[in-house]
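Section 3.1: Structural characterization of target chains.
Under the original work plan, the team committed to producing a structural model for every single-chain target entering the pipeline before any wet-lab resources were allocated. The record below documents one such target. The sequence was received from the expression subgroup and is listed exactly as submitted; it comprises 92 residues.
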Amino acid sequence: MTLSPANIIEIKKGIVTSQIDGETVMMSLENSEYYGLNSTASRIFALVEKPISIQIICNQLISEYNIDFDTCYLQVINILEDFNKKGLIEIK
């Protein structure tokens, strides 16, 4: 699936998370796998706790960090594609 700014992203059910030193550690109850996220991926994961578009994710990150839209978008897409491969999110 090719992602676009209009796609809505949300965390799949069955993902258990915890914060440790500003980073997110999570477990998928579906596949019993543990995952650790760096601070950037943790922030994106926090934003998708409720359904949200990729456009709004990028807008929020741009307001928080000194980054342009194109760079932000590419990084967000890479992280979301990784989340999707691991079965952590749903894309609508």
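The chain has one domain: 8-89.
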